[in-house]
Specification:
By secondary structure, this protein is an alpha/beta fold. The protein is built from 14 helices and ten strands.
């Protein structure tokens, strides 16, 4: 039995469930990026995943395993955007009623996409209300199943299929970087990468404003921070997950930090040079390699672009 919430067999099982459902997203490269980074960089483009982010993987892997009774009663989730879309889209494919608690300041594009997938939205004020409690209360009142954004074995295993694919597509990577919000993506990818190559270096990346993981990793226990004000809305978490933290603390080499301006510069570069649209959170891990946060430098690094859901108005401001 694994010492962690998931093991490699869980990621493999998730990959089988997602076969023919989730996109096997492409891996792209850029000579310009390689020159700037001083190494070979391979971008795993989860911005091209169904629903616009890696979150679809974990959501579908979780919902498809619900019992018939649970499916009829429906599901509820809480999210600033990508998990909301992942759950809503998966629920639509599986014929499951879905309700999502979303902050009033969530990106407009993510709100509209979640609604378009057929989900009901519960609005809350993220600075004054606790999103998990809102969803828990709804689940209790309506006998719905709560689908957490990251701290669940099925979510973690589903997200890990992105790392499993990357290891199959580029087998000889010596480092792997992903953004880290709650830790579902990095925990699953770390399991897959370490199974493929026990010597590979693993890094999570967050912004300086949302440094709960950076603090926790150094303290050796989960540290809670105030609600972070960061352009990367996918990492506005205040504390690492109970299930994700011990796995990442054991398998990752470090948590890296990047500045808000570095994220914006990376977004501009990826869009204008590589012609890839990535949201700010999706540019956090690429920023770490472009601004040389990994020391000593890797030779061949895999970097997950986690999503591409960005409001046109925000994109316009960032490009200016």
């Amino acid at each position: 039995m694994s010492e962690f919430a998931i093991d490699f067999e869980d990621v493999q099982a998730a990959a089988e469930r997602l076969e023919g459902i989730a996109h096997r997203t492409p891996v792209l490269t850029s000579r310009t990026v390689n020159r700037m980074a001083g190494c070979e960089v391979f971008f795993k483009c989860e911005n091209l995943q169904r629903g616009g982010s890696f979150k679809f993987r974990g959501a579908y892997n979780t919902l498809v395993q619900l019992s018939d009774t649970e499916k009829k009663r429906g599901v509820v989730a809480y999210s600033s955007g990508n998990h909301a879309q992942g759950v809503a889209y998966s629920a639509k494919l599986l014929g499951i009623p879905a309700t999502i608690a979303m902050p009033t300041d969530a990106p407009k594009a993510k709100l509209e996409a979640t609604r378009d997938y057929g989900a009901e939205i519960l609005y809350y004020d993220r600075l004054n209300q606790e999103r998990a409690r809102i969803a828990q209360d709804f689940a209790r009142e309506h006998a719905a199943t709560l689908i957490p954004p990251y701290d669940h074995p099925h979510i973690m295993a589903g997200q890990g299929t992105a790392g499993l694919e990357l290891m199959e597509q580029i087998p000889d990577l010596d480092a792997l970087l992903t953004p880290i919000g709650g830790g579902g993506l990095l925990s699953g990818c770390a399991i897959a990468a370490k199974q493929h190559n026990p010597e590979i270096r693993i890094f999570g990346v967050e912004t300086m404003a949302s440094n709960d993981w950076w603090r926790s990793f150094r303290a050796g226990h989960r540290v809670k921070i105030p609600p972070p004000d960061t352009i990367a809305d996918g990492m506005r978490t205040q504390q690492p997950g109970k299930l994700t933290f011990p796995l990442i603390h054991s398998l990752a080499d470090d948590i890296l930090l990047v500045g808000e301006n570095e994220v914006v510069e990376t977004l501009q570069l990826i869009l204008l040079r590589m012609k890839i649209l990535a949201e700010p959170t999706g540019c956090v891990a690429p920023a770490a390699i472009l601004f040389h946060r990994v020391q000593p430098p890797p030779k061949k690094v895999g970097v997950v672009i986690s999503g591409g859901n960005i409001d046109p108005s925000l994109l316009s401001r960032l490009l200016r």
